[in-house]
Amino acid sequence: MVGGGQLARMTHEAGIPLGIRFRLLSDTPQDSAAQVVQDVRVGDYRDLATLRDFARGCDVITFDHEHVPVEHLRALEADGIPVRPGPDALVHAQDKGVMRARLTALGVPCPRHRIVADPADVRAFAEDEPGATGFPVVLKTVRGGYDGKGVWVVGSEAEAAEPFRAGVPVLAEEKVPFTRELAANVVRSPHGQAVAYPVVESVQVGGVCDTVIAPAPGLDPEAAARAQHLALTVARELDVVGHLAVELFETADGSVLVNELAMRPHNSGHWTQDGAVTSQFANHLRAVLDLPLGDPRPRAPWTVMANVLGGDYPDMYQGYLHCLARDPGLRVHMYGKDVKPGRKVGHVTTYGTDLAEVRERARHAADYLRGTITE
C-alpha cells in the first residue's frame, strides 16, 4: 500500500484476519500506518525509482491516497505489477477537470462547471454565459485539494484572484443550493463483481466531514437505489477496482448531483467497520486481490460515525474512562496521530435502533474526547 495514513492503518487491520501481509510506502516512520505495519519502506511516492524498488515482489499495489503520478503507475504496470485502481481510473480522482469532463460525457448529473483562465473568466462563467446562475461561484484547483483545501467560494471577480496563484488550472462550478450531502460507497473487483453499501448522509463542518449517518435518514428507497446505481455505473465505466466513494449533493426536488470521487476507503465509509457485515476496508482488500466480495449490509438499523478532531487537550486517552464507562457499546478508533487543533485523530461509531439516541452517543463521545464538553 502506497501511503501511510489512517486509511492504510485501518486497511492493514482488516487484512490481519485474512492473513494478508502488507508492505507500506510511508512518508515517515511516524505515520499512522507505519506504527503498526511490520514491513515499512520510507520514501517519496513521487520518485519512480523508489516506487519500482518498493513494488518489487508485491502481488498488487493499492493506495490510501490518490496522488501518485499516473505515469509512474503505468511504468509499474509495464513492469508487470498489478495496480488497483489503475492509472486510467485513478486520474479521475486526481484531476477534477478530467473527472467532470468524463462524468458529463457519461450523462452523470454534475453541477454546471468549466475550466477558467483568470478572474475575468470567472465573472463570465458566473454572469454572462447561458445557464449562468450568478455569484457566488465555487472555485477549485483541479489537483491536490482535500478536506476543504484548494476550494474557494467567491462572491465577485475581485475575490477570485487567490486560486490562480497556485499556478494550476482552476475549475469553476455553480454553487449548488443543496439540502444535504450524501455519499454512495461501492466496491468493484477486477472481474466486475460489485457491491453497494447503504447511501449515507455526510454532515460537513468547515469543509471537513464531521458526522456520517447510515443509512441517510428520510431518503426515499427509490432515490437511494438510484444513487447506488449511479455509483455502480461510475465504477464500471471508469473501470475502478477497489472502493469508490461518490460524494453527492441532494437538492430540494430529491435529485442528486455528483460532487467528488474518491478511489480508496473513504471517511463516509468508516461506519462500516462496526456497522456493516463486511467493512469498506475488508472489501477494498478483497477487490484488489480479486477475492469474492463480502456482504455490505448493515448490522443495525442505524449506525453513526463521528470524527474526533484535535482540540486543546493533547492527551485524549484520559477521556476513555468517562466515554467507555458511559457507553459500553461505543467503538473508538484512534489513528496514533499527534493531537493538533482541527486535525482528524480518530473516530467513534455507535449503532442501535433509535437514531436520536445513537447520534447523541456518538456526538457526546467525539466532543468529550476533543475537550469541547467535560461532562
Write up this protein.
- The chain has 375 residues and is of the alpha+beta class.
- The protein has three domains: 6-83, Rossmann fold (3-Layer(aba) Sandwich); 112-174, Dna Ligase, domain 1 (2-Layer Sandwich); 180-370, 2-Layer Sandwich (D-amino Acid Aminotransferase, Chain A, domain 1), CATH 3.30.470.
- The chain contains eleven helices and 15 strands.
- It has helices at 6-15, 48-55, 70-78, 87-94, 96-105, 119-127, 221-237, 272-275, 280-288, 320-326, 355-370; strands spanning 23-26, 39-42, 113-116, 137-141, 151-154, 170-174, 180-188, 194-196, 200-205, 208-214, 242-250, 256-262, 302-309, 331-334, 344-352.
- Strands 7, 8, 9, 10, 11, 12, 13, 14 and 15 form a nine-stranded antiparallel beta sheet that branches. It has a four-stranded antiparallel beta sheet with strand order 3-6-4-5, with helices on both faces. Strands 1-2 form a two-stranded parallel ribbon.
- Helix 4 crosses helix 5 (96-105).
